[in-house]
Specification:
The chain is of the alpha+beta class. The protein has one domain: Arc Repressor Mutant, subunit A (Orthogonal Bundle), CATH 1.10.10. Helix 1 crosses helix 2. It starts with a helix and ends with a helix. This is PadR family transcriptional regulator.
């Protein structure tokens, strides 16, 4: 799983969020290292929706524009948890190798 995908799923883990909120959350989670453009985000959300990892939670009109909220599915939660465990194993292995002999 690529870092932007991981961060998008992480941003949606706590509660449903609209696109701009996801962009802000990803930037905060990555401490500014990852900044998603709207086109990139919505392409990723479409792909993640097709994969069954996220789904539309609700839509609302704000200032005449449609705001769509997304949330993780149970499959998305499982995929994120699996990725967290994988990354933790890799980080633990790296930490062991960095320790002085």
């Amino acid at each position: 799983m690529q870092e932007p995908t991981f961060l998008i799923l992480t941003a949606l883990a706590a509660e449903p969020c609209h696109g701009y909120g996801v962009i802000q959350a990803v930037e905060a989670l990555s401490e500014g290292d990852v900044r998603l453009r709207p086109g990139t985000l919505y392409g990723a959300l479409d792909r993640l929706t097709e994969q069954g990892l996220v789904e539309v939670d609700r839509e609302e009109a704000v200032d005449g524009r449609l705001r769509r909220y997304y949330r993780l599915t149970s499959s998305g939660t499982a995929a994120l948890a699996q990725q967290v465990a994988r990354m933790r194993r890799h980080a633990d292995a790296a930490e062991l190798r960095l320790r002085p002999a």
